[in-house]
Every structure is written in C-alpha cells, then in structure tokens.
Amino acid sequence: MGFVMMSALSNSPPATYTGMQKPTTVDRAALMPPTASQSLDTTGCPDPARGVCDVNAILQASQHRILDAQIEELEEQYPHNCGGDARGFQVAVHIIKRLPYGDSVGDHATFLFNSHGVGHRPCNNGLLLLLAVEDRKSAIRTGKGTQRVVTDAMINVMLGDKGFKKRMRDHDYAGGVQYILDQIISPLQENEPTFYYKWINVGIKCLWAGVAVVVLAWGISTHHASKKNADFVTKLQKLQATRERNAKKDSDVTTAPCTICLEELPKGLDFSQSARSSGNGNGNRVASESAAEILRCGHVFHEACIDKWFGSGGNDTCPICRKQSPRFPTTAGGGSSARGSRSAGTGDGAPYSRTRPAPVDDDYYAGYYENLGRQYSTVPGARRMRRRNPTWSSCKQRYGEFNLCADYDASEAKFQREEAAAAASRARASSYGESSGGGGSCDGGGGGEGSW
Fold first, then answer.
1. What pTM does this model have?
2. How many whole angstroms separate alpha carbon 146 and alpha carbon 126?
C-alpha cells in the first residue's frame, strides 16, 4: 500500500553561506504548529463528522475511497435503534500533520469530536480516530453509546498493538487506519462488544457496584457533615445571642447555655436551698436528666454534663474557672444530688450554703468558645475560625462586641467565592467548545491515547 513521506525538507542541496551571499529568509509562521481554530479547517473533507478527513493529503485518493466505503457501509447497512430511529454507528478519521500548540492528542480529539458533532445525538454513537503524524500521536474518542461496544480497554489495546505501531513507524498511515477499522467494524455491526471485552465489562460493572457502595457511604457521611455544620452555626449563634443579651443587661450563667454540651439550661433555676435545681423552683424533686447543678464558684451546668465531666479523665476542676474541688458533697434528705456518693470534684465536705450564680463574663465565653472548637473540630468552617482566632481573647480582640456571627458568615462567604472562582477557572481551562454540527458528543463517553 502506498504512502506519502512526511518531510518538510527540500530534496535540493542546501545553499552555502560564504558571508557574501544574503541569507535565505525563513518563513517562521510556516514552522509554527496550527492553532485550534486553524485545525477546524476541513477544506477537502466532504463531511468531517464521518469518513476520512485528510486536509494535508497524506493519504492517496485510492486509499481514501477504500476507507470511506467501509465507513459508509457500516453506517448505512448496519443500523440499530437510536432514540426510536434506525441509525448506524458513525466513524470519523482525522489525519493531521501536527497538533495545535499546547494541545494533547486526547484533548484535541475531544475538541474535534464535539466541534463536528460525530455520531447521532439521541444515542451518541460516534467514534473518532485522530492521527497526528509528525507528533507520532494517536487517539480515539467514543460517544457514550459507542463506549459500550468499543470499550476503553479495547481502545488501549488497539493503540498499543505492535502491528499498529509498526505501520505508523513505516508511514503506512492507511494501513494503520485499516487495522483499527478491522478491529471495530465487527462489534459495531453486531452492536455488541467482543466476547473477551464483554466479560471485562462485567468485571467493570462489578467494580462500579463497589464504587456505588462507596459513593453511598460518602453521601451518608456528607449528610452527617452537613448536619454537624448546621449544629455548629446554631451553637455559634447561641454564643452571640448570649453576648448581646448580656450587653443590654448584666446576667448570670443561669440564663446562658451550658458550656459543656452548649445547650440551654432549664428556665427558672433556684439554688436557694440546694446545689441542684430542675427549674421553676422544683429543687430536688424531678429527674436529674433535666436538672442543673451549681458549683462553689457559682458556675452552673446540666447535672448529667457535670457528672460526666468529673467522671472522666480525672477532672477535679470547674470547666470554666478551673477552681479545684468545686462540687458540693451529697447530703441526706435534700443534698446536692440524688445520685448517691460523688467523691470526684467535692471539696472539704462542708454542706451546701446558698451560692449566687456567677456572672456571664470572659471566663464563661472562653470556656464556651474552647469547647465549641473542640466539639466541632471536624467542621471545616470551625477549623478555619480557630485558625484565625485560636483563643477567646484573640477572637474578642478581632470581632469587637457584637459581630461574631457576621464576621464568621462574611469569612465563609469569601472562602466560598474564592472556591467558586477557582472551580470556574479550572472549568474554563479544560473547555474546548461545544458541538457545532448538532450531532453527537463524547462527553460522558470514553477513549484512549497512544504513540508510536
């Protein structure tokens, strides 16, 4: 089979420059690779979406006719269901000298496929073979409908085959195209992958089933993360609301959330008779799960929370002010707790004496802020907030009096804008235009690349 040698050099001997002769002017533009828009010049191609498109006349006319006849027969004589119509697979072969500057062979194949609309839109049953002969690169792109029949595994085997590469190295480009057609025509006629690749597809489907399980687990994790982020924002709003309420009127810790669980305390707490209260003056008479307890230092917590605090990690100090052994001991008939002996956190054994709740001050805010960051350390927004302000003192110095949530919202909005801008920039960088022919697309399809 004939071929055309790819050489831009002249057969005449080069002129010798002796210093007296004028140097030959070189056309630098002719040496530059084509641009993407120039690569769409399909002068001499009857239809760039099907058949052989060889704008540089690399193949002989007789080779064109042989290859085009096979491609035309495949599309017209072997139709299959395509969105309710009978359509055959559409194959395009593009042979170029060089790739556009900066393009990889795979990217340029995608660009040509989508720009010319290879395949029929309802079923995306197109296939495009690209040969860049001076770059010694090859690529195949398939629409989603074709990928099921001509799989990515099959494409990689074809482009890496020694017989195909040998034809390319010998400049037998028509022979290389014929080799590819010989491999794909039979499965495209039958609309079924070959037996070997069918079983590979089964294995891939099993793999995708495993991926689906992973994606499901990821979705559950994402939902949990979203809920935790919402909880964090709610707790941050409670802290800000406490600050604003305390700024209008000095208040004590009975009106603020528990700094251990960051949830609201019962209303109407009364510690006149006991270190334990369930709200509305009920003292010791209801379940401890809804009760609160006051410590010697005046700080108040849910009883269940403070029991857990003193019962874990050898804690013996107030979670807020770090006062040693701040808990009142149990006393018979109306002591500080109905839970029996509580040696952890108790002081010198002195019975309960009326204690005023401590004010909401910087010690309280510092305890709340520290526990908020610790409980929600897996929330990205919380981590970013703690990096900006590791302690409450730095947070107060930065935020001022009443704009804690506003500053957090503004910081997160700025971060999301930056992320969106970066994503848009990445999308623009990978964009190669859309189909202009109203035909198929390889978006969602497959393919492979090779070199020889």
1. 0.44
2. 6
